[in-house]
Structures are given as C-alpha cells and as structure tokens.
Amino acid sequence: MNAAQKIFRTVALRLVPLAPLVLLAAATAPAWAASHAGAHGAHGAHAAPGAPAAAAPAGEMTDGEVRKVDKDGGKITLKHAEIKSLDMPAMTMVFVVKDKAMLDKLAAGDKVRFKAINDAGKFTVTELQMAR
Question: Which top CATH class is 62-130?
C-alpha cells in the first residue's frame, strides 16, 4: 500500500462514523424547511403569535367564491384569488369572520368580495360583500 492509499484509508475510516449524521441532515432538511415556511407556505406577511394584526391596504378587496359556511363556528371556506395584502396565492381555505352576522345571508356558491387580515396567525375576514 503506497502513501496516498494509506492517507485515503485513514481519512475514509475517520469519516465513516459521520455518514449517518450527514444522511440524517439531508433527509430532515426538507421537513424542516416546510415546517418553517409559515401557515400557508407561500405567504410573506407572517405575524408571530401575539403580534398585532396587519391591516389590509384601504380599498383592496379580493374576489372569492363561498364553498362552505359555518355559522356556529364563525368560519367561512372561500376559494379566493390572490390576496396581495397578505402575499397569499389563490387557494381554497377557511377564514374566521370578524362578525358572525356576516354569514347570515351567505350560501355555498355565492360570489363575494372580501378583505382579510392575519390576526396573530388567524386569517380573519374583516369585510365581506356580494360580488356584482
């Protein structure tokens, strides 16, 4: 065995115990990244728990379609367009409503326009109107 082979063997034997650690890091990196991407992954405007609510820019309403109304829970499921004020792509999701009375005249399939905020991690509809 020449000197280069001896060095390679020595280095390789020292690195072998590190292989499981390297594999573990590689395997868990995607899971860690996903868990730290926020509640909905693509949003840039995240509020930490207990942080004050971010206000939507005045006059900026988002188009949506009602998928489900939960009057008792004060929630509404909306298929919505991009919400620019929250840096949120179009998707279908559940929102809390600021006032349960907003839900009184809504039914699945209704077209609406709404404003929403991130209230300490709870996406909340603050204004809602029937689309024209």
Answer: mainly beta
